[in-house]
């Protein structure tokens, strides 16, 4: 916490910002440095993200005007280091889908990634490249 306060104070002044940018490792006790992570740090890192979703067990419940979801699903996504390894994997797989399956993608306008990649094999492609998707639990919830 003291380091954060120190950085906040130094960041308020031109000279302080210059010092922080010039000697980041010294002023952050090694937390930040000018060089990126070493190859060993990248190889040894991984990520795990959990998602909790609420929704309906049947699409007809929505059309009936049911206002509260009746299902909960917990999923987990895991993979290699997220910045230097996973990001390029995802970017390249998305680009390959756009190039190879452009006839099957929605036409016109601006779309969210879910609309564009939902009906594709993106998840399978990512799993083949070391990014796993798991359903941890799926249960009914009371209204």
Quick summary:
The protein has helices spanning 2-11, 14-22, 24-27, 39-44, 59-63, 82-100, 113-117, 122-128; strands at residues 46-55, 71-80, 132-140. The protein is of the alpha+beta class. It folds into two domains: 1-35, no CATH class; 40-140, no CATH class.
N-to-C CA distance:
42 Å
What does the largest sheet look like?
Answer: 3 strands, antiparallel
| Mean pLDDT level | 90
The number of helices is 8
Outline the low-pLDDT stretches. none
Secondary structure: helix percent: 40-55%
Q: How large is the radius of gyration?
A: 22 Å
**How many E strands?**
3
Structural class: alpha+beta
Strand content: 15-25%
The tally of domains stands at 2
Order of helices and strands: HHHHEHEHHHE
Strand order of the largest sheet: 1-2-3
Query: What would the principal axes of the Cα set say about the shape?
Result: extended
GO biological process, one term: glycolipid biosynthetic process
Transmembrane segments: 6-32
Keywords: Membrane, Transmembrane, Transmembrane helix
InterPro entries: Saccharopine_DH-like_oxidrdct
Task: Note the main attributes of this structure.
143 residues; alpha+beta; 2 domains; three-stranded antiparallel beta sheet; 8 helices; 3 strands; extended
